[in-house]
Amino acid sequence: MMNATTHVDDHPVVALQNVSKQYEKQPVIHPLSFTVKKGEMFGMLGPSGSGKTTTIKLMIGMEKPDAGSVIALDTTLPDLQVFRRIGYMAQSDALYHELSAYENIEFFASLYGLKDAYKKDRIQYVLQLVDLLPHAKKPVSQYSGGMKRRLSLAIALLHEPELLVLDEPTVGIDPVLRRSIWDTLHELKMNGTTIVVTTHVMDEAEQCERIALLRDGRLIAVGSPQELKKTHQAETLEEVFIQFSGGLQA
Ligand SMILES: Nc1ncnc2c1ncn2[C@@H]1O[C@H](COP(=O)(O)OP(=O)(O)OP(=O)(O)O)[C@@H](O)[C@H]1O
Ligand SMILES: [Mg+2]
User: Fold this and answer.
1) Which of 14, 66, 151, 208 is the most exposed place for a label (fewest CB within 10 A)?
2) CA distances (Å), 220 to each of 39, 140, 150, 155, 231, in order?
3) What's residue 161's pLDDT?
4) 214: nearest Cα among 235, 233, 198
5) Chain mean pLDDT for the chain
6) What's the rounded Cα separation, in Å, for the pair 250 and 127?
7) 117, HSE (Cβ side, Cα atoms, 13 Å)
């Protein structure tokens, strides 16, 4: 078991301050504040529709808050330069189906400004990392759901981002590959990458140093899995989650 606390320091990589968001006059995120520390593996947990995806879009400047501020990598968002230092894997894959995996990756590599030998090396490296080298020439239209997720992850890693934000990265991925993806995430973390990940899978949440629990667009708890279990007198994180999902106020 890797030491999950290696390399974390208290300097915030992301800081949300009283951030709120409405869609069509409906509040989706109620004012919330939290920080993600440098080098941290930070999880976001909450029922479907609780605001996880919206919160991470706010964290990377893809959505603009109605109120409050977001600072990422020492810059107030939105900011295009900072966006280039972030790796983002969306919940639904944004891939070109008529192109091969290689062509997809190449497209994004050019978008990120990668060039020549470095570009070629990075493409090989990320394809190999997600175990897609043997399938690189296939059109994405022939990919399974899990293969598309892996390709999206490869793309998010292309430009060696300092901050990696992954929205349900392992949905549709079998247990063996899921473990290998998490091993990769731990390795990236060991090398100093800060990682924010949303998940519905409890054993993934357990691997995070801290977790934010969301419900109905409200941040109801932030803490380490151990802290959350202790505070809520639960044996497992799943029990904590169910307590929160069942209508208890924090
Ligand atoms: N572009 C949008 N326009 C209108 N409503 C939206 C939009 N995006 C999200 N919402 C609403 O905001 C709320 C939070 O959605 P969000 O996608 O952030 O939840 P989530 O926690 O990521 O859910 P899931 O686990 O299903 O991915 C939901 O009620 C959703 O319907
Ligand atoms: Mg979501």
Assistant:
1) 66
2) 23, 39, 31, 32, 13
3) 96
4) 198
5) 91
6) 43
7) 0
Q: Span 144-163, mean pLDDT? A: 94
* Dihedral Cα 19, 22, 28, 29, nearest 10 deg: 10
Ligand closest to Cα of 214 equals 1
Residue closest via CA to ligand 1's atom 12 equals: 28
Whether 235 is in the pocket of ligand 1, judged by its Cβ within 6 Å, is no
- Atom 7 (ligand 1): residue with closest C-alpha? 23
Pairing, β 210-215 against β 41-45 = parallel
Question: Residues 223, 231: contact at Cβ < 8 Å?
Answer: yes
pLDDT recorded at residue 7: 66
Which residue, by CA, sits nearest to atom 13 of ligand 1?
49
* Residue in 20, 24, 52, 244 to alter for ligand 1 test, most ligand atoms within 8 A of Cβ: 52
- For 17, the 3-state DSSP assignment is strand
Question: Does pLDDT of 240 surpass 60?
Answer: yes
Model confidence band, residue 60 (pLDDT cutoffs 50, 70, 90): very high
Confirm or reject: Cβ of 49 under 6 Å from ligand 1.
yes
Question: Of ligand 1's atoms, which has the minimum distance to the CA of residue 47?
Answer: 25
Gap from CA of 215 to ligand 2 centroid (Å)? 12
Angle 229-235-237 from CA coordinates, rounded to 5° = 55
One-letter amino acid for residue 27 of the chain: P
